TrEMBL record:
Pfam families: VPS9 (PF02204). Residues 243-390 form the VPS9 domain. GO terms for cellular component: early endosome; late endosome; plasma membrane; transport vesicle; tubular endosome. This is VPS9 domain-containing protein. One of its GO terms (molecular function) is guanyl-nucleotide exchange factor activity. SMART domains: VPS9. GO terms for biological process: early endosome to late endosome transport. It comes from the Eukaryota. Transmembrane segments: none annotated.
Length: 512
């Protein structure tokens, strides 16, 4: 692998910037799960839009089936790549065959000090959407970096931005925020944003300057730039002012640890894991501007709705005439469950920050219902008496992930030693019977633990979600000539612990 040039410094790479900023939830999940992150070099990303689909198409998890292969982390795991000797090859699930050279590999470490890999590659695995100038200036900017870049892209803004920077510096250096005077801070910053927006709109020479969408984009960008620049000074004061509410909410959430979705009143049809929504909400404190926090709340609800609807469709009988529909009454307890799972420590402060330091009328009108929905969820959470909850429903988890089975298969010797302690008669069993016995005991343990998935997830109950999908919907087609030593951990474990009762009949099953 060649040495990374200054041009390909990750700190200036649009993909890496978007991954750290706008799509921080993807980045956090990739770190926690030790995924492989492939970052195209900067020169490939000019005039490109970094949307969620493009970002996710370059993040991979190890294949449980074949060593050296990786699957995309989207719900369907539809893409497969092979990484070997500094070269990445797309195998299936991509628009075209791509062979990409790895220019640089960097090892990062997550919060548990476990390594994950970041690869800088010389080819795009999937082409990103392109933005021409006319479309880009009308595209809503939400993050601090996006808004700053947008405002600085017009040379006629240079002097005005210099004046804005002076005002921001004066505020951060000399203005003292006194307890109980947040209203004064709000008024001062709103006035600063209003003056700056008028000055920039007047100076701007873009052909779209009279388009309301362009004007709204300018207004939102100025607000996000100014408020984002003083966030480090203002938000700690908001947290201090609302620390009693945040603490009360944290205590309530802590007291509900272990409560399941059905106990909160979620209909059985709508109970399903929603890890993407939880990760999005848990990342709220890492965002800077009120607008991007508001958009994160919107994304949380969007992914919640999409996840529940997908689960309902998968479970529903095609012959059923009545279609289940997620109503606002159904949404509330599900959102409460997500709030409990995300354990966002300053949710009350974040809602106050959005409500009082976001003044743009356009996005307020469009996304106002999002803020109201979260406020209603907090009211439900704070005012409901949870002391007399009905018993949680005990349900057998019939869907066992590959990793769980692998864990069982790899503990053959340990479980053999524990047979006497478990009051299992020490008779000689065939290997297939041992496998069946281990899987049966695992299922029983899962039931007894009330569907606690350990490090995977709980079904809209509580706990930290750390995975999204256990097994791809369709096992990727593989070359039958692949060598045995190329098998991944899962298949190797089964092959090494072969079923001595398996017949040569292709239709026979080792599980009877």
């Amino acid at each position: 692998m060649s040495r990374m040039s200054k041009e390909d410094d990750l700190e200036f790479n649009p993909f890496y910037e978007a991954l750290q900023d706008k799509y921080g939830g993807f980045f956090k999940r990739a770190q926690d799960k030790q995924f492989l992150i492939c970052i195209p070099r900067s020169s490939l990303l000019k005039n490109s839009i970094m949307n969620a689909a493009f970002i996710e198409s370059h993040i991979f998890r190890p294949s449980p089936f074949f060593q050296g292969q990786y699957l995309t982390t989207d719900k369907a795991s539809k893409g497969t790549i092979e990484y070997e000797n500094g070269v990445i090859k797309t195998i299936e699930g991509f628009p075209k065959d791509v062979t990409a050279k790895v220019l640089y590999e960097e090892t990062g470490y997550n919060k548990d000090y476990k390594p994950f890999s970041i690869l800088l590659i010389d080819q795009l695995l999937v082409a990103p959407p392109k933005a021409n100038n006319a479309e880009d200036v009308l595209h809503l900017k939400t993050s601090f970096i996006e808004c700053k870049t947008f405002l600085m892209s017009f040379k006629e803004h240079v002097n005005i931005l210099a004046n804005i920077n002076d005002e921001i510096h004066q505020f951060n250096t000399n203005y003292m925020i006194l307890p109980g005077y947040l209203d004064d801070v709000e008024t001062r910053l709103a006035s600063m944003c209003s003056r700056a927006t008028k000055a920039i709109c007047k100076a701007n020479k873009h052909p779209k300057k009279h388009d309301k969408r362009f004007q709204d984009n300018i207004s939102n960008s100025v607000e996000s730039y100014i408020v984002g620049s003083v966030h480090h000074k203002v938000f700690p004061v908001i947290r201090d002012e609302l620390k009693a509410k945040d603490a009360a909410l944290a205590n309530r959430i802590s007291s509900l640890d272990g409560v399941t979705g059905d106990q909160l009143g979620i209909r059985d049809e709508f109970i399903c894991p929603l890890p993407e929504s939880v990760v999005e909400l848990a990342n709220l404190d890492n965002l800077t501007t009120p607008l991007e926090k508001l958009m994160a709340l919107k994304t949380t609800i969007d992914r919640l709705t999409e996840g529940v609807n997908t689960a309902v469709e998968e479970r529903q009988n095609p012959t059923d005439k009545e279609q289940l529909c997620l109503t606002s009454d159904d949404l509330l307890p599900i959102l409460v469950s997500l709030i409990i799972q995300s354990k966002c420590p300053y949710l009350e402060s974040n809602l106050y920050y959005i409500q009082h330091f976001h003044w743009s009328d356009s996005s307020k009108d469009e996304f106002g219902y999002i803020l109201v929905t979260f406020q209603a969820a907090l009211e439900f959470l704070n005012s409901t008496d949870f002391h007399n909850l009905r018993p949680a429903k005990q349900k057998l988890n019939k869907e066992v992930g590959i990793e769980k089975i692998l864990e069982i298969a790899s503990k053959d010797n340990e479980e053999q030693a524990n047979q006497n302690a478990a009051n299992i008669h020490p008779i000689q069993l065939s290997r297939s019977e041992k496998q069946l016995e281990r899987i049966t005991r695992m299922l029983e343990e899962t039931t007894a633990e009330d569907l606690k998935y350990k490090d995977e997830y709980k079904p809209l109950g509580l706990g930290k979600p750390t995975r999204y999908s256990g097994v791809p919907d369709v096992i990727p087609l593989q070359d039958p000539s692949r060598k045995r030593e190329q098998l991944g951990d899962f298949l190797s474990a089964l092959q090494n612990d072969g079923f001595d009762t398996c017949s040569s009949d292709a239709n026979s099953s080792p599980f009877g």
